[in-house]
């Protein structure tokens, strides 16, 4: 009987209220290169004005004191400089690799193992932007390919790479700040060429007779993309196009658009026509509060 009692007591510790299980959200933003992902991510800051696109280099500088930026992409913050916007907290993986003679994998592990220490020392930081997960993936891929016995053994490389992404994502879930993951896009299912054959009713028919759209997703190797997609509170697509007077118009999408798979866990909100301001949308659905 004591054994049963002890077991019951230990099992009772598994039961929690949903309020106590709340974790800070992870937001995934992806789209083509130079579509405006970095600028859109910066609008999560309470210091970023809604009319930021009207700013010029001649305006007084704005400092985003509540964001820490990890710059995997070279020149990641160039797009903010045109608006005279300063990011005071930046982690540069390449500088860490160079100054500490670290491998790509060691430097990335070092960053995520120490992020919470940085956040505790700087409680004003509420958001961490990872710019971009795609480039981080490429750094890890290059490192793993250099250490496996057969660099052409894609199965082993993919398995080890997925393991690294899983460790990193586990650390993201423990962060004392909201994570914003930026990612480039790639076609997950390529459009068929006109000479390709499609098997329909046991007949090989030229694919040119059918419209076979591409599914476009985050540019992450193997099943890593699925890991981030399935565990994010929202996946947002950022696109741009030429509008009136040849000006660039940037749009954000929380639903499927042009082959991109977007979505969120907040179906009760109409997110079809959101403005290019991340903080406003996240406040609308309750992922960011006034204190952040």
Task: Tell me about this structure.
This protein is α/β, with parallel strands linked by helices and 292 residues long. Helix content is 33%, strand content 22%. Strands 1, 3, 5, 6, 7, 10, 11, 12 and 13 form a nine-stranded mixed beta sheet that branches. Strand 11 and strand 12 form a beta hairpin. About 8% of the residues have low confidence.
What's the short story on this structure?
The chain is of the alpha/beta class. The protein is built from nine helices and 13 strands.
In terms of topology, how is this protein built?
Elements: H1 2-12, E1 26-31, H2 37-42, E2 62-63, E3 67-71, H3 78-81, E4 85-86, E5 89-91, H4 93-100, H5 104-121, E6 127-131, H6 133-147, H7 154-173, E7 178-189, E8 197-200, E9 203-206, E10 215-218, H8 224-230, E11 234-242, E12 248-253, E13 263-264, H9 278-284
Parallel strand pairs: 1-7, 1-11, 2-4, 3-5, 3-6, 6-7
Antiparallel strand pairs: 7-10, 8-9, 11-12, 11-13
């Amino acid at each position: 009987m004591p054994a049963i009692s002890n077991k019951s007591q230990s099992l009772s510790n598994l039961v929690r209220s949903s309020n106590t299980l709340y974790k800070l959200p992870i937001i995934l933003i992806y789209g083509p290169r130079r579509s405006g992902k970095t600028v859109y991510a910066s609008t999560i800051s309470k210091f970023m004005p809604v009319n930021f696109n009207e700013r010029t280099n001649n305006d007084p500088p704005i400092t985003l004191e509540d964001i820490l930026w990890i710059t995997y992409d070279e020149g990641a913050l160039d797009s903010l400089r045109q608006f005279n916007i300063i990011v005071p907290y930046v982690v540069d993986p390449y500088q860490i690799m160079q100054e500490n003679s670290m491998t790509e994998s060691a430097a990335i592990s070092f960053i995520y193992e120490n992020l919470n220490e940085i956040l505790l020392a700087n409680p004003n930081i509420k958001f961490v932007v990872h710019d971009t997960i795609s480039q981080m993936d490429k750094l890890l891929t290059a490192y793993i390919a250099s250490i496996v016995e057969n660099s052409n053994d894609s199965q082993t490389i993919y398995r080890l790479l997925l393991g690294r992404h899983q460790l990193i994502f586990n650390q993201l879930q423990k962060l004392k700040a909201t994570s914003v993951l930026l990612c480039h896009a790639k076609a997950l299912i390529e459009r068929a060429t006109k000479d390709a054959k499609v098997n329909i009713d046991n007949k090989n028919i030229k694919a040119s007779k059918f419209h076979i759209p591409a599914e476009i997703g985050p540019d992450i190797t193997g099943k890593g993309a699925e890991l981030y997609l399935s565990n994010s509170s929202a996946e947002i697509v950022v696109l741009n196009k030429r509008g009136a007077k040849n000006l660039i118009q940037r749009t954000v999408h929380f639903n499927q658009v042009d082959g991109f798979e977007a979505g969120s866990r907040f179906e009760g909100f109409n997110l079809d026509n959101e403005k290019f301001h991340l903080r406003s949308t996240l406040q609308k659905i309750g992922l960011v509060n006034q204190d952040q």
